[in-house]
Design goal:
Layout: H1 12-18, H2 21-27, E1 47-51, E2 57-60, E3 64-65, E4 73-74, E5 83-88, E6 95-100, E7 106-111, E8 121-124, E9 129-133
Antiparallel strand pairs: 1-2, 1-9, 3-4, 4-8, 5-6, 6-7, 7-8
The structure holds fe (iii) ion (FE).
Length: 153
């Protein structure tokens, strides 16, 4: 698979300083958070999931589904170019790693047992994501939100 240079390139030391130890372990060391521990496993709010390392738009809540696996699961990336797929034969398994194309951060893996038309299940660590609620849509919290309308880019 073609490997393109990442727009965001930082030294290991810089990543260590910017990320929490848990985020660093996932994003830079290809670690996996324990299932059912991530903050976005059960999140059903409308919004965007961005890369926790570089802020790139990765997944839309519209494609999120409950896979029962304990990790946030999506049927597809927000745009195909947002992620890079790499063969991963570690741990005696044949898997496909999902990486943020913008910064090279490890996000999770993609499997072929998804429910959507393309049959894919993007299994992504919460620690690699930063959720951004969509403006102008009810987030379930109530309260005045009219001031926010139209301020987005
Ligand atoms: Fe990134």
């Amino acid at each position: 698979m073609a490997t393109t240079p990442h727009k965001v390139e930082k030294t290991d030391e810089e990543w260590r300083q910017e990320l929490t130890p848990a985020q660093y372990e996932v994003l830079r060391r290809a670690g996996t958070e324990p299932p059912f521990t991530g903050e976005y496993v059960y999140n059903k709010d409308s919004g965007d999931y961005r890369c926790a390392a570089c802020g790139a738009m990765l997944f839309s809540a519209d494609t999120k589904f409950d896979s029962g696996t304990g990790w946030p699961s999506f049927t597809e990336p927000a745009v195909a170019e947002a992620v890079e797929l790499r063969p991963d034969n570690s741990l005696f398994m044949k898997r496909t790693e999902v990486v943020c194309r913008n910064c090279g951060g490890h996000l999770g893996h993609v499997f072929d047992d998804g429910p959507g038309p393309n049959g894919q299940r993007y299994c992504i660590n919460s620690l690699a994501l930063e959720f951004q609620p969509r403006e102008g849509e009810p987030a379930g919290e109530g309260g005045p939100a009219a001031d926010d309308a139209g301020s987005g880019a």
